[in-house]
Amino acid sequence: DFLCISLANGFIQLRYNLGDKTVILQTFQRVHANGNTWHSLKAGRVGNEGYLDLDGTSITQKASPGMNALDTHTDFFVGGVSSLNLVNPMAVENEPTGFTGCIQEIVINDRELKLTVTDPKGGANVGDCDGTVCGYTVCKNNGTCRVENSGFSCSCPQEWTGSTCEQSIHCSQNRCGSQALCIPEPALLSYICVCGLGWSGKYCDSKITFFIAKFVGNSYIKYMDPYYGKRDLQHSRISLNFTTNQTEGLIVWMGKGEDEDNDFLAIGLTNGTLKVVINLGERISVPLIHSQYSTCCDERWHFVTVVQNQTCIKVYLDEELILFEDIDPHKKYTALNYGGICYFGGFEIGRKVSIVTTGLFQKEFIGKIKDVVLFQDSKKIPLMKAEGYNVYNGNDGN
């Protein structure tokens, strides 16, 4: 598989192959080689339907039957490759050559690649585009970079401060503890402290411990499974207790949650009903929804267990089997490659549940979770020893 953006005879080309055929898109207008004009380029695909946009003029490739997931377990190259032998002959129109020109502000799946000296894995024959320390976006939040004898300085907008305009003025004198995040509230000319796992209080300076995790919104726990390398991923299992008065919310997401091709198993609530979604490969997400209106949102404790036996999924609610389905009788994909990562209640601060789950779940979980067990482990997972924010002690009965 591959996805390649290249310059061919003055035109921008997008070529990708998902395993069955090569799709080619090309811009209508040429890129003039005057070296003085920056161009904005957007390219990508949704399933096997591609799109290409150059300076606001876009073209699309209609989807046709075939593969719809890109399997690229390789390094990501910008401007060239370490060896021309790595380039698939179908990825470019002519003989592959390295790019000559300037590239900045590359964003892949909403994450910006840092094109600095230290951040990439490797590279060669690459220099700063304008020959100064301001050649890259060194000043954050629309700050203006100025070249100085000692390096550079940033002139910051009114609401920002710091050497690179990275800090809100409302957080510049914050009293948040060392394990907390400062979230500015410009409308109130103030800030709030979001506490790291194991801390509470207005300024997150009170140490706490718990066995029941209380999620209050904008909360999450990210647990790294230490036994992932020894798991039989064709036979997965997760069980937990939860209580809530909300009708929507993501309870647990087993999976990396980084891009659309990651495997996952998710449990949550939709319209007051328990919903389980599983993806074992090729972005085929299979939602399993309890057919009856459940009592999951009655503030009582409920026990849920999801068992994956290759492509057969069983869901138990309060020890009653409520769902049983073979999601792929052909058994094309049978393993849950979840990367050893389990999210509870939501995702990292700033990542919206509706976006990360592509609309499968709408909101973060508000309620309590306890007694989480993975696979056939004899012990519950220690939620207190994970990463997380805005999670509190649910033992107090509030």
From TrEMBL:
PROSITE patterns referenced in this protein's UniProt entry, alphabetically: EGF_1 (PS00022), EGF_2 (PS01186), EGF_3 (PS50026), LAM_G_DOMAIN (PS50025)
InterPro entries: ConA-like_dom_sf, EGF, Laminin_G, Neurexin-related_CASP
GO aspect biological process, one term: developmental growth
Protein's UniProt keywords contain Ribonucleoprotein: no
Paired cysteines (S-S): 102-129, 156-165, 176-193, 195-204
Record-linked PANTHER family: EYS PROTEIN, PIKACHURIN-LIKE PROTEIN
Keywords: Calcium, Disulfide bond, EGF-like domain, Glycoprotein, Repeat, Signal
Domain of life of the source: Eukaryota
Domain Laminin G positions: 1-129, 210-398
Protein name: Protein eyes shut
SUPFAM superfamilies: Concanavalin A-like lectins/glucanases (SSF49899), EGF/Laminin (SSF57196)
Annotated ranges, domain EGF-like: 130-166, 167-205
Top-level taxonomy: Eukaryota, Metazoa, Chordata, Craniata, Vertebrata
Keyword hit for Disulfide bond: yes
